[in-house]
Amino acid sequence: MSEETESGGRAWMCLVCGWVYYESLGLPEEGIAPGTRWEDIPADWKCPDCGTTKDDFVMTPL
To answer: Check: CATH 3.90.76.10 for 11-42+49-60?
Structure first.
């Protein structure tokens, strides 16, 4: 099973608050364009809801 969906994106969920980052949607309000891979988001980026780091995110099924 591929970790990517048919649309070419993946989803990453915050283990602290449950917020989900969808690669296909990006986060334009924070300057992250749609289609931006999780690996390409800066290491110092923080969850927009709770402020935790990327270390507290896990890939989740869409």
So the answer is: no
